[in-house]
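Risk register update: the risk that structure generation would not scale has been downgraded. Supporting records follow, first protein first.
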Amino acid sequence: MNQGPAPTTPELPGPLAALAPFLEHYGYLAVGLLVLLDNAALPVPGQTVLILAAVYAGAGQLSLAGVVAVGLVAAILGDCLGYLLGRYGGRTLVHRYGRYVGLSGERLLRAEGFFTRNGGKVVLGARFVDVLRQTNGIIAGTTGMDWRRFLLWNCLGAVAWVGVWSTIGYLAGGNIDQIYRQALRFQLYLLLAVVAVVAVLVGRAVLRRRRRS
């Protein structure tokens, strides 16, 4: 009985191609491990392996439902781990050493106030920006963001992040190279915008402090 040709994946750009053997060997375990670590403060290519797994699902080599399910669970657990690290380790470090880097007293209270007002939006949007994706859970835990509120926004952020990248990877097919490069460029612009906003806020704080003195 002729079963037809085996499914093949489209040509992959460098970072995706480099991860292909790892994904082919470990499958869903590779997705779960890298996505979890990527969301728990370690700079591993979790987002890249998620996209690659979705490309494989589009080529019939993996199940899209399986990729999404594993990615969601791993992303949520990873951010929760980061939160716990910040809650029980970060606060201790800040209280002990924060004065050496200017993060103590009034500044720590302002950081906690900021997360009380805007932490949900930060946790939701941080998933789409490298560096913030790895650290938002730790920051939320360190600044004392309410656990239930964090968990809600963590889950919403994971759904959005996994949903967007798995859909893009699944539908991209032979266009994944161009789409991947455009996504990296957009992510860089977004990170630069965040850095610019932070720089403006820090500059305003410094000016206010000088005026008071």
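Supporting record for the second protein:
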Amino acid sequence: MSILSPFDALRGAQRPGQKAAAKPRMLLAGATGLLGNEVLNRVVGAQNYALVQVLARRPYVQSLRGMELLTQECDDVPQWPVQPADVGLIMFEPARLLYQRESALWTPQPAQLQAVAQWMHDCGVRTLAVVLPHDTGSLPQALKQGLSNLDEQGVATLGFERLIFVRSARERQKVSAGHFLQRMASTMLSSLSYMLPQTERPVRAMHVAKLVEAALLKAPPGIHVAPPERVWRAAQKNGLQAELQDWLGQA
């Protein structure tokens, strides 16, 4: 049995060790509303990302370690400078008026989905999650399970390695103005909402945030769509792991 000299031990200690895998960087558009705030706290607090850059309209004092504001001076998304990133997250919940922090953030409009996704792809993003507000009872079953409009189909053609759509149910938006027939139709649909199955009803923001966070980490390559029913089942006691296994093949 050979005995190491102090010089051998010193040389061994000076050798560079195996480098730890670099953590990915995230771009986040729409960290507003109850859901946006919950998702932001989870993705930053879990420390799975080297940096989470949140799109903003103007600076404000931030308090979350691992987060950085990325201020955009205009709404012309194609003119935004490229920011290197690996993961993207897009949400559409409006800012709450009484929260000054949220009023400083930039939230996309649904019509800007494809432009923001294209910009993120140009930034190097290969995994993209889109959390879409879904009015209860507004989509047929076939569309809830897949891509529901041309914008979503356009995002799917951009070439992301992993593309995740989470349809987060919300109460149908009230119509306070407009044509009489439009208001009548809205009232009828609102009354029919009481007949919706339990699995299509909204769930708490914390449960949606848990599903989004896990999907970003576990989704295999491909396009993955979570309809409101899956989001509801994942929110039930001990339901998250079972839904991840069924949806993504991951526990």
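The chain has one domain: 22-248. On this basis the risk owner (M.S.) recommends closing the item.
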